[in-house]
Specification:
Layout: E1 5-10, E2 13-18, E3 25-26, E4 41-47, H1 54-57, H2 61-69, E5 71-73, E6 76-77, H3 84-93, H4 97-100, E7 106-109, E8 114-117, H5 121-124, H6 135-141, E9 146-149, E10 165-166, H7 175-186, E11 196-201, H8 203-211, H9 216-237, E12 243-248, E13 254-255, E14 273-278, E15 282-287, H10 295-304, E16 310-313, E17 333-337, E18 353-354, E19 369-372, E20 380-382, E21 385-386, H11 390-397
Parallel strand pairs: 4-11, 4-12, 5-20, 6-21, 9-10, 9-11
Antiparallel strand pairs: 1-2, 3-10, 5-19, 7-8, 12-19, 13-18, 14-15, 15-17, 16-17
Length: 420
């Protein structure tokens, strides 16, 4: 099948798309602005579900070497809920999920009850769901090219902007292809070379869900991704460019009591609610008719049967440390399980590995932060810190402007690790 090239003119310049979905999508052919040519580079890599202790536990020697050469944190504290989509987007915006709007992997927009879910391609690519301003949007607006080989939000027209080049997510894409493309981008001429690149690897997470975090399958997945991280860092050092490599994960993985699932629907009459369920941990309840549903009675009924296995709150009454309120997308009632318990449905058994839990109640959902390159010191260990603080560090390395008053993070937690 031939590739079809679609050309159109936009206010920002000439852009074009490859219609064949397996190929890279190019949205911007403008060169880097002259003032950005000498600025540094950041390659941001996410290893989904990589728990804070996996590198040492499973002997990830290349990641351990990056820690030795550069900077690493005791752990990276995910935002609540410790789920994939909210936290990937938090990392690149510096905002808590209730601030940027991706409040869970699945949720409703109360007006019209339109549903967002991670498996819905149309929703994932629709910029209306995404608040905040990701790094790549700042970069593109300031004349700096960016590229993404998968990242939450990179496929959407956030504020009508996408990376100069990006790929639609496809889990079957070999890791070698992802790494090769990142290196290929850095071999482009200075005028077209992206300064901010994202990469994503998912197998550690999927194996953790299917087999549990203590499994042989997880160890194999950790060592496989470690191999490709080692190849990536080796090649990055040979580019001769001031490239900074940052390794993160969106969350870790909790071993669950999946043989003792909680059946939420049996705890109360929930027929008057639409329920957005995610990760076996988060349930957002939306009253279909607030005039006929007695929300306080539902909360009382659910709490009476919790037995220390889950929490129930109105969004406005959520614990302050979770920063999970003040957003209509949270619905009328938030129900979340306490590790290691998970929700299930009759006839379906939850996975032995899960995340989404309160990161201050379950440390096993903590992720990783490793960084190496000319803008990071060597041999520095940081205390555990929240992932909202990564965004300002990246922005400062790339020398991009942003308004610190419009994000939740700040640069202080990483300042001991950054070269002056």
């Amino acid at each position: 099948m031939k590739k079809v090239l679609v050309l159109f003119v936009a206010l920002s310049g000439i852009t074009f798309l490859w219609a064949q979905k397996k190929d890279v999508i190019i949205t911007n052919v403008r060169p880097n602005a002259p003032e950005t040519l000498d600025k540094p580079y950041v390659v941001l890599v996410s290893i989904d579900g990589f728990r804070f202790d996996y590198a040492e536990k499973y002997g990830a020697k290349n990641i351990a070497e990056i820690a030795r050469q550069g900077v690493y944190a005791e752990s990276l504290i995910p935002s609540f809920p410790s789920s994939t989509f909210p936290n990937h987007y938090t990392i690149v915006t510096g905002m808590y999920p209730s601030s940027h709007g991706l409040v869970s992997n699945t949720f409703y927009e109360p007006v019209g009850m339109e549903k967002y879910r991670i498996g819905d391609r149309d929703g994932v690519e629709d910029g209306k769901w995404y608040g905040g301003t990701p790094v790549w949007v700042h970069a593109e607006r300031q004349g700096m090219r960016s590229a993404s080989y998968f990242w939450v939000g990179s496929e959407a027209d956030v504020d009508s902007v996408r990376p100069s080049q990006y790929y639609r997510y496809k889990a079957s894409t070999p890791y070698k292809d992802r790494v090769a493309q990142a290196l290929k981008w850095l071999k482009e001429p200075p005028e077209t070379r992206p300064h901010f690149i994202t990469l994503y690897f998912e197998s550690v997470d999927s194996k953790g869900h299917a087999n549990g975090p203590e499994s042989v399958e997880v160890k194999k997945a950790v060592l496989e991704v470690d191999k490709w991280i080692g190849k990536l860092w080796e090649k990055l050092q040979k580019t001769g460019l001031p490239v900074n490599l940052i390794l993160v994960s969106d969350h870790g993985m909790q071993l669950t009591k999946n043989d003792q699932p909680i059946f939420l629907d049996g705890m109360a009459d929930l027929s008057g609610y639409e329920i957005a369920r995610s990760s076996g941990v988060i349930n957002l309840l939306y009253a279909k008719n607030k005039d006929s549903v007695k929300i306080e009675e539902t909360i009382a009924e659910l709490r009476a049967k919790a037995e220390g296995k889950y929490e129930v709150f109105r969004p406005s009454e959520m614990p302050a440390h979770l920063h999970y309120s003040d957003n209509d997308r949270l619905g009328d009632i938030v129900v979340y399980s306490l590790a290691p318990y998970v929700f299930g449905n009759p006839g379906w058994r939850p996975s032995p590995g899960a995340h989404g839990f309160d990161p201050y109640q379950a440390k096993d959902v903590h992720g990783i932060f490793y960084a190496v390159g000319p803008h990071f010191k060597s041999g520095v260990k940081l205390f555990s810190f929240e992932n909202i603080h990564i965004f300002p560090a990246i922005m400062e390395i790339l020398q991009l402007q942003y308004d610190p008053e419009r994000i939740d993070g700040d640069s202080a937690p990483l300042s001991p690790a950054i070269q002056p």
